[in-house]
Design brief:
Number of helices: 10
Shape: globular
Low-confidence stretches: none
Number of strands: 14
Strand order of the largest sheet: 10-9-8-11-12-14-13
Oligomer: single chain
Helix content: 25-40%
Largest sheet: 7 strands, mixed
Distance between the termini: 60 Å
């Protein structure tokens, strides 16, 4: 018997993006995707039909509307329908196409054949239920910042990189293609670890070049053989903030970092905490309501 899924659609003001994603992830949704529709964002997510019922969905709808009321934003429009498993696998993939980012990268969905392009490095990604397809502004800025920071890294012996909260592994894999000899990655979500292993296989990366395990930044520090040259952390501001005091232990004295998943109005406080810990904020990138910081050691 084919598996059934709830397909959840939400049309919300762009300023509610972080809250909608958080609510859907907490609810246990898979295959979350979003697309711009005028001044709004349309979110599509999926969750197994059993044991989810109408009351569960109604509760999510209520919480989303409460978030909007508290923030004085327009109420989101919520709808859902039941679909079969084969429709789920094709529905959210249908609108995801190869995407060029920066000057050197192109992100390919795993189910689309890579077309040769001497100017770009193809990174194949099958996200599963992990965050990181290259479609979200925070991932795009992180990849572009990574390319900028790693220009010429292929000429450095044993350049190393760490991805804190790796999701699908898109940043770690891109770092390997851009010249890193070794990457280390952690995520607290076991599904993300599975996704990164799968994507490393898709990209035919030698297992000796990457280390990835489920865990926090403390777990990463406990297993790093030595500090790395650069790192990225694309999560959310409230998760990044308590880790700032540990970033200095992740990288070498001349190391650098990329931080994203930070709303524009959250950036000043994160920057203040970074400077208190001896970091210099080199650049601040902004896209839509999101910001991306590149930082370096003093």
């Amino acid at each position: 018997m084919q598996e059934r899924w709830w397909e959840i659609s939400i049309l919300a003001d762009r300023s509610l993006e972080e809250y909608v994603i958080w609510r859907l992830q907490q609810f246990g949704c898979d295959g979350l995707a979003s697309q711009v529709q005028g001044s709004s964002l349309k979110f599509t997510a999926y969750i197994n039909y059993t044991p989810t019922n109408w009351l569960d969905l109604a509760a999510v709808n209520l919480r989303l509307k409460q978030d909007a009321v508290v923030l004085a934003k327009p109420l989101p429009v919520f709808s859902c329908q039941v679909i079969w498993g084969e429709d789920w696998s094709s529905s959210w993939k249908a609108n995801w196409h190869p995407q060029s980012l920066g000057d050197r990268l192109i992100i390919y969905p795993a189910w689309i054949e890579v077309q040769p392009d001497p100017q770009r490095l193809p990174v194949r990604i099958d996200p599963g239920s992990a965050f990181g397809t290259g479609a979200h502004a925070t991932t795009q800025m992180s990849l572009e910042a990574l390319e900028f920071r790693m220009w010429g890294a292929d000429k450095i012996t044993n350049f190393s990189f760490a991805d804190i909260g790796c999701g699908s592994g898109i940043l770690a894999i891109a770092a390997l293609f851009l010249g890193a000899k070794q990457v280390f990655a952690v995520d607290t979500d076991g599904l993300a670890i599975e996704a990164m292993h799968h994507n490393c296989e898709l990209n035919q990366i030698n297992p000796d070049r990457f280390w990835v395990e489920q865990g926090s930044i403390e777990h990463l520090l406990a297993h790093l053989p030595e500090p790395v040259d650069g790192f990225a952390c694309n999560i959310q501001a409230h998760i990044i903030a308590p880790m700032i005091k540990l970033f200095v232990k992740v990288v070498k004295p001349q190391g650098w970092g990329i931080l994203s998943g930070i709303l524009v109005d959250q950036a000043p406080e994160i920057m203040h905490q970074l400077t208190e810990q001896g970091w210099t904020v080199a650049t601040v990138w902004k896209r839509e309501q999101w910001s991306c910081l590149t930082i370096r050691r003093e």
